[in-house]
Structure formats: structure tokens, C-alpha cells
Amino acid sequence: MALVAVGYALGPAVLRRYLTDVPSVSVIGISLAACAIAYAPFAVARWPNVIPSAHVLVSVGLLAVVCTAIAFLLFFALIERIGPVRATVITYINPAVAAAVGIAILHETFTVGMGVGFALVLAGSVLATRRKAPAAPAVAEKKTFE
Prior knowledge:
The chain is mainly α. The chain folds into two domains: 1-83, no CATH class; 88-130, no CATH class. 74% of the residues lie in helices and 0% in strands. α5 runs antiparallel to α6. The radius of gyration is 22 Å and the shape is globular. The model has no long low-confidence stretch (mean pLDDT 82).
């Protein structure tokens, strides 16, 4: 998990600094291919004895398309529009959204810790994405000679 967090933090900056000439679709494709290759041995080791149900296969397909492919395209568009530092804030909001969806759809229990965490995530996100006020123009002092 720590490696994933570091990847989310560094990825947009690397993309913006070193890969500006590379189409985002190519970056996404290479990244996902590298992940698939890295995960392949673990998948083979845990291969199921039976084919999962159609419901499971459709769910995995939707997750792959909506939550990965489309999300990456939107994320790279966001990086292009607002910059890599501000764009990464969306990754901090994801757990809060997941908790809210879990409460709304899966009827999970809302805890005080979740509420405090949600407030901290929102406050940190606002602070991280706010724009600095433009510096006031320097006013030349008038010197009077007496």
C-alpha cells in the first residue's frame, strides 16, 4: 500500500515533467500492462477452480472500464487542466467517497472516526487546492526632501 501511495504522489509529477510529449493513452496502457505483468504470478497461484458467475465477470469488467480506464483518462485530463499537485488531491478524497457509498448502498455503519476523517480529508483538500492570492503590487515610497 505504501508503494501505491508513493506512486500516486509521484506519478502526476513524473507525467507532467518527463512525459509531456507522450499521449496519455500510451502512458495508461504501459502502466496497466506493467501492473498486469507484475500481478500475473499471483493471479496464476490463486486461479479459481470454477469460472466465476456472469454477475462477477460483468462487475470486474465494469470496474476495469469505468474505475480504471475512464478514471485514468479523466485523471490525466485533470492533470493537464489544473496541474499535477492539485490533481492528486482527488486520490485523497476517494476513500471518503468510498465510505459514503458504503454507507448509502451497503448500509455500513457510520462511525465518529469516519466523520472526523472525512472532515480532515475535506479540510486538507481545500487547503491543498486553494490558490494563493496575487501579491499586491509594490508601491514606491515617495521621499520628500526638505
